[in-house]
Design a protein that fits this description.
single chain; alpha/beta; about 150 residues
């Protein structure tokens, strides 16, 4: 099973200014606006990768390894064919689900959810999203069916 790098997330103090850089300098497009109880910001895309530019509103949603006010790379996301199989592969390799963040953000392994991603631990403590649906603005994004 091959998975594609489809998503990155950056914690930023100023999502507006950061999104302007991607749009004005790199020619990317805004694919969506984030305004949840956990974060505000934008999804920008080059058509292949969705890059979330997020200002986290609470520490649990960001994850315990990120101090309040952290800016920089936050997590990376891979689109897969079967999320349950992918989570099992992570576990078999010794990388556990990030229940702290999944619970704080209301995430799950349900591909029909709006937030159809699941946070996992990765090498060097990098947080990794896995998703069957993918991310808005990417060529492989699968819109919600219900």
């Amino acid at each position: 099973m091959t998975v594609k790098l489809s998503h990155l997330a950056m914690a930023t103090a100023d999502p507006e200014a950061t999104s302007k850089f991607f749009v004005d300098v790199l020619g990317w497009k805004i694919a969506g606006i984030v305004n949840s109880r956990n974060a505000s910001g934008y999804y920008v895309t080059d058509g292949n990768v969705n890059f979330a530019l997020l200002n986290f509103k609470n520490a649990p949603a960001a994850g315990k390894e990120f101090p309040e006010g952290y800016v920089g790379l936050h997590h990376i996301g891979f689109q897969c064919e079967n999320i349950e199989e992918m989570v099992d592969k992570f576990k078999d390799a010794g990388y556990e689900p990030r229940h702290d963040v999944n619970i704080a953000q209301g995430l799950g392994m349900n591909p029909e959810k709006d937030n159809a991603e699941y946070k996992m631990s990765g090498p060097e403590n990098i947080m990794i999203d896995v998703s069957e649906r993918g991310w808005v603005g990417t060529s492989t994004f699968k819109a919600k069916t219900k």
